[in-house]
Write a structure and sequence with these properties.
single chain; alpha+beta; 4-stranded antiparallel beta sheet; 272 residues; disordered N terminus; 8 helices; 10 strands; elongated
């Protein structure tokens, strides 16, 4: 078997635990408060008047669903963000050097000596409550894997509505099936549950599908609290190295999966 380097594949989109971690850091700064300053320095927002429209409004809540983050303001206005592959949220002490150039900042919200900055979007929009409620992208999302109570029944219903010939690894990446699992957690969940990510959905039992999600959820919950994914990785990025569970002669394999050719890491020995 040939093992490919990660450079052949697209970069990873921040996963649900990264977005929940950002929300957890932003919430103490902004929730329940009127920002002392809110500005949108990027030229694309020059005509949108966000500063004027949000002036004097308190942030009612900061929450996440899957890979989407929401700053909800008084009066039914919401800032919606999706980072895709290029964006990031940072909470920075005022005066601290920014990790990216100032021109990369799309949103800056300051309260006292703390700044909440979103760099390089690319999805950043101010929405009314009605638009949030009826937005088809958001309405189509599956249950959030990091919700306080995971709706496992809804996850299974969405999974069974999917193409039964689709590989299970690709299926759990679909945000319409379950929101928040990204490419790294797909690989880690399938590995921990000993499920071949290439097995067709129709050949995966409900118990096996739930095992993948249940292996991901507590690990993602820990990462959402401290932002440290690295210590939780066992197989992702280890192509060609010994399997961490069954060791030599088994080596970790990698191959692109799905329409986006996301690298899928698995052990051909213990995940069959």
């Amino acid at each position: 078997m040939r093992y490919w380097g990660c450079s052949a594949y697209p970069e990873r989109v921040p996963e649900g635990d990264t977005i929940h971690y950002a929300a957890n850091r932003i919430r103490p700064v902004l929730a329940g408060h009127v920002p002392d300053e809110l500005r949108t320095p990027h030229p694309r927002f020059a005509r949108d008047r966000w500063e004027e429209r949000l002036a004097g409004r308190a942030v009612e809540s900061v929450d996440a669903h899957g890979k989407h983050l929401f700053l909800r303001f008084e009066g039914g206005l919401t800032i919606h963000s999706h980072l895709r592959m290029t964006g990031s949220w940072r909470v920075l002490a005022e005066g601290r050097r920014w990790p990216r150039p100032a021109r990369a900042a799309w949103l800056v919200a300051r309260r006292e000596d703390q700044q909440v900055v979103q760099f390089n979007g690319p999805v950043l929009e101010l929405m009314t409550a009605g638009r949030v409620r009826f937005d088809q992208r958001l309405a189509a999302l599956g249950p959030d894997i990091l919700a306080p109570e995971l709706d496992e029944g809804r996850f299974l219903r969405r999974l069974r509505e999917d193409d039964p010939t689709r590989p299970i690894g690709d299926a759990v990446l679909d945000q319409r099936t379950i929101a928040g699992i990204g490419n790294m957690w797909k690989a880690e969940g399938c590995f921990a549950a000993r499920i071949d990510p290439w097995r067709a959905v129709g050949a995966v039992s409900n118990a096996e599908a739930l095992a993948i999600v249940r292996e991901c959820r507590p690990r993602m919950q820990r990462s959402a609290l401290d932002g440290n994914q690295t210590r939780l990785k066992r197989i992702y990025g280890r192509a060609g190295l010994p399997c961490p569970r069954c060791a030599p002669p088994a080596l970790v394999a990698v191959r692109g999966q799905g329409d986006d050719n996301r690298p899928t890491y698995w052990c051909p020995r213990c995940q069959t």
